Amino acid sequence: MTGLARTALAEAIATFLFVFAIIAAVNSGSPLTPVAIGFALMVLVYATGHISGAHLNPAVSVGAFIRGALDLPGLIGYIVAQFVGAAVAGLLSFALWPVGKPMSIQIGPAFLVETLWTLVLVYVVLNVATSKDHPNNHFYGLAIGSTVLVGAIAVGGVSGGGFNPAVALGLSITGHFAWSAIWLYVLAPVVGGIIAALLFRLLNADDKIATVNEGETAETAE
To answer: How much is the pLDDT for 210?
Structure first.
């Protein structure tokens, strides 16, 4: 298997595993849930980065598209794969856990933190995993997973710490996020991802790479 089919399948599998790990961690009720989520993302980025770039997040894919690391067919393929993987994880979770109770949020603060921390996440991804100044580095997965860990601890109590429309879909299926708020968990991260990509381009005007749709490596198309 080659091309977009291969990379999209890798995105679907890794997003499925990531979202399932999140659901399991949330249902555990452990105070270490943010740590489990951050580490889950880290290991899956390392495991899948060489195949697809391991976006596992539509907002990251949007940022990579604006940055020039993904073409339009790749963007569409990645986002569809990510949502499919997340939906399967949410549905499969019912074999182990009952429907969750939706988190109560305030729209304004939740939108703000989802936008801001997704901006941070995508900004980190673009700088550590696509910048020409960090070729063949080995810290990109740790940096990306740590960003989600910090966000989950710092602002998770405000919004639930989605920072990812695919994660939001999975947690809406399981009942942990209210369906009435799904628009927030999709729109805010995408806005954050767009701003992050524009900031990256502003600060790295001479850093251009060929647009790809196969996520050749984690360092060139995270």
So the answer is: 52
Tokens (6 digits) for 133: 């100044």
Q: Tens digit of pLDDT for each residue in 30-71?
A: 999 999 999 999 999 999 999 999 999 999 999 999 999 999
CATH number, domain of 48, equals: 1.20.1080.10
Q: How far apart (Å, rounded) are the C-alpha atoms in residues 76 and 38?
A: 26
How many domains does the structure of the chain reveal?
A: 1
In this structure, how many other beta carbons lie within 10 angstroms of the beta carbon of residue 21? Answer: 18
- Which of 65, 69, 51, 66 is CA-nearest to residue 12? 51
**Which one-letter amino acid corresponds to residue 87?**
A
Residue pair 125/41 in contact (Cβ under 8 Å)? The answer is no
**In contact, 166 and 90? CB cutoff 8 Å:** no
Give residue 62's domain range: 3-221
